Amino acid sequence: MYVVPGQAGRLFVVTGANSGLGREAARRLAGAGAHVMLAVRTPAKGEQAREAILGEFPQATMEVRQLDLSDLGSVKEFAERLIAGNTKLDVLLNNAGIMTPPSRLTTADGFELQFGTNFLGHFALTLRLLPLLLAAPAPRVVTVGSMAARAGTIRFDDLQRERGYRPMEAYGQSKLADLLLARQLAQVATDRGWNLMSNAAHPGYTRTNLLYAGAALRQPGDRRMLMHMLMKVPHPVQGVQAGTEPLLYAATSPDAVNGGYYGPNGPFELAGSASTARLPRHARDAGLAARLWAEAERLTSVELPGA
C-alpha cells in the first residue's frame, strides 16, 4: 500500500472529489495533513464527502467549491475566485470524468460531453490556475488517464463526434487527449524553465460508479473494444483504495517525474501496486500533442500565461 508522505501546509484541488477515486484521494491527502479543496459539480454531495472524511480525520482541513467542468463559464468563475483570494495552490488533481453516455450529449458550450468535460474542462481549468501553481515552491498537475486511451484516436475532422457517435470511441478520445495534455504541459514547463511537474496516472480496472455507469454499452463496436482491452485474460479487479494509489503516487511521491505516467504494476496494468505505466503510442506523439493543445486553446479561448 502506498503511504502518502506528510502534506501539512499544502493545498490540493481535487476535481470530482465527492465519489470514487477523487473522494479516496481527498480522504488520504486530508489524512496526511493536506488542505483539500473538493471541486465538485454538486456541492451537497461534496459536503457529504467532506463530513464523512472529517468523521475519520477530525483535524483535517477541507472545503467544498462548486465546479462544473462541462461549463467553461463555471471553470472561469472557479479559477477567478481562487485567484482573487490569492490562494496558494500546490497540486491540481484533474480527476473528474464522464464515461460512455449511450447517446451523444453536449456541454453547456456545445462540445461533445466527454471531450468537453474530461479534456476541455480540465484544459481550461489547468491553464487558468497556472499563475497560482507557479507561485508554489513545488507545484504539480496530475491528470487521470484510462486504459481506454490505448484505443483512442484524435479525430480532428470530427472532434465533437457529430458523425457516427460511439460512446467508447468518444471516451477513448477524451482520455487520450488527457494524456496529451499532461505530456504537453510537461514539455511547456521544461521549455519555459518552470518548476512545475505535470504527470498522469490511471487506476487500472477499478470498481467505481464511473465504471459501472459506463458498463451499459449499446454499440457492438464498443463492446468489442472493451472486450479487447479487458478480456484478453481473466482479469483482476480492484477496489477504489488500490485504484487511487497511482494517482496519489503521481501527486505526492518524491520519485515521480515530470512527464511520467503511473498505473498498477500487475498483468496488463489492470490491478496492483503503483508503478510506472506504459504510455500509449499516440500519447508519445509530440506533434499530435502540440496540435491538440492549439486546438484546445482555440475552442476554449484560454491560453498559456505569458512566458
Can you describe this structure?
Mean pLDDT is 92; it is low at 211-220. The radius of gyration is 18 Å and the shape is globular. Strands 3-2-1-4-5-6-7-8 form an 8-stranded mixed sheet, sandwiched between helices. It has one domain (11-300): NAD(P)-binding Rossmann-like Domain (Rossmann fold). The protein is an alpha/beta fold. The longest helix is centred in the middle third of the chain and has 26 residues, at 167-192. It is 42% helix and 12% strand. The protein contains 10 helices and 8 strands.
Radius of gyration: 18 Å
Number of helices: 10
**Count of beta strands:** 8
Question: How many domains comprise the coordinates?
Answer: 1
Give the topology string: H per helix, E per strand: EHEHEHEHEHEHHHHEEH
- The CATH superfamily name is NAD(P)-binding Rossmann-like Domain
Distance between the termini: 40 Å
The top level CATH class name:
Alpha Beta
List the helices and strands and how they pair.
Elements: E1 11-15, H1 20-31, E2 35-40, H2 43-56, E3 61-66, H3 72-84, E4 91-94, H4 113-134, E5 140-144, H5 167-192, E6 197-201, H6 209-213, H7 220-230, H8 240-243, H9 245-252, E7 261-264, E8 274-276, H10 286-300
Parallel strand pairs: 1-2, 1-4, 2-3, 4-5, 5-6, 6-7
Antiparallel strand pairs: 7-8
Top keywords for this entry?
307 residues
Short summary:
By secondary structure, the chain is α/β, with parallel strands linked by helices. It has an eight-stranded mixed beta sheet, sandwiched between helices.
